[in-house]
Design goal:
CATH superfamily: P-loop containing nucleotide triphosphate hydrolases
Structural class: alpha/beta
CATH architecture: 3-Layer(aba) Sandwich
Strand order of the largest sheet: 1-2-5
Order of helices and strands: HEHHEEEHEH
Radius of gyration: 15 Å
CATH topology: Rossmann fold
């Protein structure tokens, strides 16, 4: 049944949690599975989620009291995606932070 999800797939959206390194590390498993079931020439977008209200001070991220601390920095994740030929964005479902529409149309 699982291979039916990947049949004739044109795009894959991979979402990971910026407060959990293991979620970024786990994306390779999802890509392997998609390739295994035939989704080989897809447009892949990687989204780092939970990007909200972080303050950068001397290369250290501090979160608001009610937010977990960011663990995966943007440069690391962007490099991971770009090395695989994927597009990268950061988002916040909670705060409604989405990529700039103009930037998305240029890619």
């Amino acid at each position: 049944m699982r291979n039916e999800f990947y049949k004739e797939t044109n795009a894959i959206l991979l979402v990971y949690d910026v407060t959990s390194k293991k979620t970024l590390d786990g994306l390779d498993t999802w890509i392997s599975e998609a390739n295994k079931y035939g989704a080989t020439d897809c447009y892949v977008v990687v989204c780092g989620n939970k990007v909200r209200s972080f303050c950068l001070v001397r290369d250290l991220y501090f979160a608001k009291k009610d937010n977990p601390k960011r663990v995966v920095n943007e440069l690391e994740a962007r490099k991971w995606a770009e090395n695989r030929g994927f597009t990268y964005y950061e988002v916040s479902a909670k705060e409604g932070k989405l990529p700039n529409r103009k930037y998305m149309n240029e890619n």
